[in-house]
Amino acid sequence: MYNDTLPDSKNTHLAPDHAETVKATLGPVGENIQTIADTFYSKMFAAHPELLSDLFNRGNQKQHAQQKALAASVVKFASHLVDETAPDPVAMLNRIAHKHVSLGVTEDQYQIVYENLMAAIADVLGDAVTPEVAEAWSAVYWLMADVLIKAEKDLYASDGVKDGDVFRKGKVVEKTALSETVTAFTVEGDFTEPRPGQYTSIGVKLDDGARQLRQYSIIEGDATRYRIAVERDGEVSTFLTERVATGDTVDVTLAAGDLVLRPGERPIVLISSGIGSTPLTGILSYLAKHNDSRRVSYLHADRSAQTWAQAQQVRELVDALGDGSIQTFFRDSDERIDVRGLDLAGADVYLCGGTGFLQSLRDELAALPADKAPANVFYELFSPNDWLVS
Questions:
Q1: Burial bucket for residue 107 (CB in 10 Å: 0-12, 13-18, 19+)
Q2: How many domains does the chain have?
Q3: Using one digit for the tens of pLDDT, what is the confidence trace for 98-140?
Q4: Signed CA dihedral, 111, 117, 123, 126: sign only
Q5: Which residues are catalytic, by number?
């Protein structure tokens, strides 16, 4: 699922009285965002336990990552509505929309979120939530929801499926250890063609009966076959690694994700850290398969040479390119990526890794002088922290 057009965040406006109220209460809401988020999810899962067992990732819930992500995204969107100098959150909204369609989220679920989020704000802020405050923040939520609902409907339509109809059965036809902690799985089924760099959600039924989902980047694939790399970390990944064998069946969603290879003639620079190499390996696979003539530079940071799970495949793919190169940076040798020494001028840069890695590199890229700066920077991160790096 993919569209070239971004969500329409520019044509969203609060009524003047709502804008004044949101401005006045943005501080208290933002300061209490973690408490509001925790209260919100407690209320929602108490009323709808099926959402925790079958839709939301319990690992992210335990780490409080998902709780803060949703509420903080609403606050970030509110800031955009009332502050002309605030950055447009369109990139954040686009990533959220892609993650939602990869989980089969539908319009009716926004009402459930709304009811519990507003109840949480009222509980945490108490008497400060007057009818006027509640009305103003309701307007913020539904403006954001309307943008996402429209974007998600368009994404479902891009693959010609009904809203939410993204789950397919996938048969595991290959399972290969790439390192001590990373295993590659190949699943076959009636899917759709992935764009290079996209991901799929894999669902498994755990011992307690919960169907848990996690998103994995597609290393390579087509409409009948997806290959993913799974790092043994968390319930779903551990279950896949230890309990799922060749011949078994898992839930697989149609490919989604906004980090995709863009067409053009500009040089390509791929920069990853750890398991963040997976979507960039997908991009490399596509470039090599189609004999792309663009200059490609691949830079990878990892704990050590032994922990780089996709080293062999990446080296083979770069060797297959007409104009490709690799640089590696291993922490056990005190090596780190310094963008100031790279040839990035006019290039399309693709980043993938953890939150700290992305924040650091994006700041360094933004600080480059104009004559050394890339033309574009695209990125993906493997945690529900989009609001941090938007």
A1: middle
A2: 3
A3: 999 999 999 999 998 888 888 888 888 888 888 998 999 999 9
A4: negative
A5: 110, 152
| Chain segment 13-55, per-residue pLDDT in tens | 899 999 999 999 988 888 887 788 888 888 888 888 877 656 6
**H/E run at residue 252:** strand 249-253
Range of the domain at 116: 16-158
**CA proximity to 165, closest of 96, 94, 251:** 251
The residues, ordered by sequence, that sit 6+ positions from 373 with a Cβ below 8 Å of its Cβ are 344, 345, 365
Q: In angstroms, rounded to a whole number, what is the distance separating the alpha carbons of residues 70 and 41? A: 10
Say whether both 147 and 20 belong to one domain: yes
* Partners of residue 228 on adjacent β-strands: 185, 218
On whether the CB atoms of residues 138 and 92 are closer than 8 A, the answer is no
Q: Are residues 220 and 336 in the same domain?
A: no
12: how many CB neighbours lie within 10 A of its CB?
17
CATH code of 355's domain? 3.40.50.80
Check residue 256 and report its DSSP letter. Answer: B
CB burial of 45-54 (b: ≥16 within 10 Å; e: otherwise) equals: beebeeebbb
CA distance 11 to 9: 6
CATH code, domain carrying 152: 1.10.490.10
